[in-house]
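Dear H.,

Thanks for agreeing to be a second pair of eyes. The structure we're designing against is below in token form, covering all 243 positions.
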């Protein structure tokens, strides 16, 4: 056991694991990842590194508050936002200092997988992966586009075929973010779902979408499998297994 990776909990005296978690802008698996993080954070300190797209997508699915329970703040339990980290990502230097036992990137978008597989480290999460790998810290990735065809839950949208263009539109009037026009402005939407409940035509929902993984994305995942220190997870439950 690598004693230098372990953290002796201040209050309980228990040995705590220290895990770094990267969230990128993938909707696929996102809710399951949050559940796994919540489970894992009961016995570990989790620092969450969130890409710009990750931050937006979490908000669209109404999941941004859930991260606060996983990484409540304090050293090694912070939420680190790419938006606030400049361009050189000094916080990723923690991997070189042996602060974390592992890095989990879940969900890992095709974009982030492609960058990591190509040695590009110009984003917070791709930089964390590069430094973790250089420091000998194992990197586990749960890619969104692993299998040929998968189902992914979409954020809320207006089905224009069902919309009655009502003069008084209860969802539009009630939306706390002012996000409803002919469509939902997803950069304003916080995924609360009030609109879906209020629409008299049932025109607003999330729904499942079929996503076909590109050969290019699958190839990048295969390349990563071949590099020492990187491990590909196939389904969200695998995250619990590695811990
Ligand atoms: C609602 C929503 C869901 C998305 N889901 C995925 C996804 O599952 N997989 C993916 O590769 N990209 C997805 N994207 C696109 C990424 O967010 C986009 O490529 C982004 O640039 C990724 O940046 P990042 O890898 O730095 O987080 C989604 C975008 C939106 C708006």
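And this is the sequence the design step returned. I haven't edited it by hand at all.
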């Amino acid at each position: 056991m690598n004693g230098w990776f372990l953290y002796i909990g201040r209050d309980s005296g228990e040995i705590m694991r220290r895990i770094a978690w990267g969230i990128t802008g993938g909707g696929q698996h996102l809710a399951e990842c949050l559940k796994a993080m919540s489970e894992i954070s009961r016995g570990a300190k989790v620092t969450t590194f969130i890409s710009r797209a990750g931050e937006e997508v979490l908000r669209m699915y109404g999941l941004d508050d859930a991260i606060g329970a996983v990484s409540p703040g304090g050293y090694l339990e912070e939420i680190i936002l790419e938006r606030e980290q400049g361009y050189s990502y000094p916080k990723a230097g923690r991997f070189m200092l042996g602060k974390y036992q592992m890095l989990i990137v879940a969900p890992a978008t095709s974009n982030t997988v492609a960058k990591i597989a190509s040695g590009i480290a110009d984003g917070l999460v791709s930089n964390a992966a590069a430094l973790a790998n250089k420091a000998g810290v194992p990197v586990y990735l749960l890619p969104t586009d692993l299998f040929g065809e998968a189902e992914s839950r979409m954020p809320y949208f207006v089905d224009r075929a069902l919309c009655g263009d009502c003069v008084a539109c209860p969802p539009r009037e009630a939306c706390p973010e002012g996000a409803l026009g002919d469509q939902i402005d997803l950069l304003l939407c916080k995924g609360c779902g009030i609109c879906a409940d209020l629409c008299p035509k049932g025109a607003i929902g999330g729904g499942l979408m079929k996503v076909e993984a590109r050969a290019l994305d699958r190839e990048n995942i295969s390349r990563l499998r071949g590099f020492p220190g990187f491990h590909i997870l196939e389904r969200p439950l695998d995250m619990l297994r590695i811990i």
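Two observations from my side: The first helix runs from residue 30 to 40. Residues 24-28, 51, 53-54, 57, 60, 109-112, 123, 144-145, 152, 155 surround flavin mononucleotide (CB under 6 Å).

Warmly,
E.
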